[in-house]
Amino acid sequence: MEELVALCKRRGFIFQSNEIYGGLQGLYDYGPLGVELKNNIKQSWWRSMVYDRDDIEGLDASILTNPKVLKHSGHEDTFSDPMVDCRSCKARWREDHIESSKCPSCGSEDMTEPRPFNLMFKTSLGPIDDGSSFAYLRPETAQQIFTNFKNVLDSTSKKLPFGIVQIGKAFRNEITPRNFIFRVREFEQMELEFFVKPGEDEHWHKTWLENRLDWWEKQGIDRENLEIYDVPQEELAHYSKSTLDIMYKFPHGTEELEGIANRTDFDLGSHSKNQSELNISSNTQENTDSNAKLAVQDIETKEWVVPYVIEPSAGVDRGFLAILNEAYSKEVLEDGKERVVLSFKPHLSPIKAAIIPLKRNNEELVELAKNIKNSLQALQLGRVVVENSGNIGKSYRRHDEIGTPLCITVDFESLEDGTVTVRDRDSMEQQRMASSDLAEYFKNYLIF
């Protein structure tokens, strides 16, 4: 983990937030390369969910959340962790992080009794902070999908089964943020709520598990580094009938990468009025605040059905860390020098190609390099840069370390016959080709 953290700071992937003021625990900023990788992960997920399917629609909902939403979803009552304090060193811990009743920091057994700690951030609304008007920063993106269920259904005329997806920020006031960007207080989620007929939920639960495993493999995650954890009943969230967690072997240990939950009709039922008329199966409380009927009418029986929900939910930040860890390697070359490589899948690489003029001060070479860069950038397949450092060896090493799959060198022969040298990151093989063929080669190389 230390090597990944150092690489992220050195090469501009991730910085500690507010670092010049000492930072804030559990908050990180994504730098020039980090934001590119993060966006590429989100775009790949969105493409697989929305563009490659005909049964899923997208949403981008507000972060500030009406307290009534989180009251009826059960979050106000259940979204808390037991917290303990060490009387010796004053450290604060989640109870489930304590082993053998000893403080993980100093080893003292002088610990306080566990007490509940609300994980949701609260903020005031309006000009006067008197506690009468407030909202929560959403602790998950799911609830805004459920509250928009009827809006999406009415505007798109979808039929069961169908889904609604959202990528967005969520906020949890974690007691002990830890392990770099694995557990933080501000993070992004990629969530799908897939609505199905009651009775078909277990089939779709298994189907989405396989779908998500396949997607992670396409992002470069080795299946051997993934495990499936069937969450025991006593550990399930209050809304879940069954949850299957995809676990990844992170540098700090095997932990959850993505959860796929069968939420039954809990959420739509919780936000619906007149639940007794809707044949709600889950244990929800009558909602007197909402005037919505979040249900679908069966065409044949004319009965109203509250769909069950299968929810694959992945953290962008955890996905970022897993993909970074999977891509990272060190190699010792024939000359004894060490090469650090990030072997990202090309569609995820922050920079898709670097155009390198052999001499940085030669105007003709630099101009040709810029023209090639502009022609490849116009294809809109990702970021292309001109690397004008003047040292070809160091340029190759730098782009190996940040995961650039292609380096294209422009030399004096290029000025004579229009050919360039194309170097592959992973094999380090080089080939000479006409610059007029680069666009087609580039497109084929990056096809996902």
Structure explained in plain terms:
Helix content is 29%, strand content 29%. It has 448 residues and is α+β, with helices and mostly antiparallel strands. It has two domains: 246 residues, Bira Bifunctional Protein, Domain 2 (BirA Bifunctional Protein, domain 2), CATH 3.30.930; 113 residues, Anticodon-binding domain (Rossmann fold, 3-Layer(aba) Sandwich), CATH 3.40.50. The strands form seven sheets. It has a seven-stranded mixed beta sheet with strand order 3-10-11-17-14-13-12, sandwiched between helices. Strands 21-20-22-23-24 form a five-stranded mixed beta sheet. β18 and β19 form a beta hairpin. The mean pLDDT is 90.
Summarize the structure.
The chain is of the alpha+beta class and 448 residues long.
